[in-house]
Amino acid sequence: MGLFDIFRWSRKATAVSQTDYVVFIVGPSGAGKSWLLSLLLKMATTRVPINKGQKPCTSKVYAERCHFEGIQSGIVLVDTPSFYTYVGPDKEKIVKKWIDSNYTRPKGAGILYMHNIASNPRDPNLEVSRHFSAFRRTFPQALVPRAVRVVPTVAHGSTLPPDRISTLITGLRHQADNIGASTLGAPFDGRPETAWDVVQELLNEITACDG
């Protein structure tokens, strides 16, 4: 194999392939997307950055192909920027460009939609349906992932009482129902084992939808 062939193979090795599962981490700014990603990356046995090794950034797409113990297929974790932040650049165009350049039909794909339940409920830009619709528009129609799981989060050190948390999750579940998504029953607690459980549950949904 010559140098050109090695270079060409290495480029193909970092793009989404037909043997990968793809997990898109989506949601408004401050919802915990990078938090979840960092926990999952620490659990991976191997990692290969996509996009020439860019660092995680709130205004760009960041992706890594990971292998985890007990799972044969690669799992591409994709951290996406927030669409409605009141400041440029246009994140929808950024995500669409990444999809067009890197994404082909994988073995299976799903969406983890992160949502801070303590965020302003009166802000229309934080509505699940609006943000989710913007994300869907970045895909060719035939490639939009069908498996979607909404993950409620709360900020570190939150003092929300349990009854208030329950009420907020109920409201979030109604929003999730409107986009055909399932919902984690309790706020994400930041533990690595919980992060992995969230991914496993999504993978099960992906298998049910795409299998």
Brief overview, please?
This protein has 211 residues and is of the alpha/beta class. The protein has helices at residues 3-13, 33-43, 91-102, 128-136, 162-178, 192-210, and strands at residues 21-26, 46-50, 62-67, 75-79, 108-116, 147-153, 182-183. The protein contains six helices and seven strands, in the order αβαβββαβαβαβα.
Helix content: 25-40%
Characterize the main sheet.
7 strands, mixed
What is the string of helix and strand elements? HEHEEEHEHEHEH
| Percentage of residues in DSSP E strands | 15-25%
How many individual β-strands? 7
Radius of gyration from CA coordinates: 17 Å
Across the major sheet, the strand order is 2-3-4-1-5-6-7
Q: What structural class results from the helix and strand content?
A: alpha/beta
Please work out how many helical segments DSSP would assign: 6
| Overall 3D form | globular
Query: Span from first to last CA?
Result: 36 Å
What's the average pLDDT? 86
Low-pLDDT sequence parts: 1-13
Write structural notes for this entry.
With 211 residues, this protein is an alpha/beta fold. 37% of the residues lie in helices and 19% in strands. It is built from 6 helices and 7 strands. It has helices at residues 3-13, 33-43, 91-102, 128-136, 162-178, 192-210; strands at 21-26, 46-50, 62-67, 75-79, 108-116, 147-153, 182-183. It has a 7-stranded mixed β-sheet, with helices on both faces. Helix 5 links the parallel strand 6 and strand 7 (182-183). The longest helix has 19 residues, at 192-210. The chain is globular, with a radius of gyration of 17 Å. Residues 1-13 have low confidence and may be disordered.
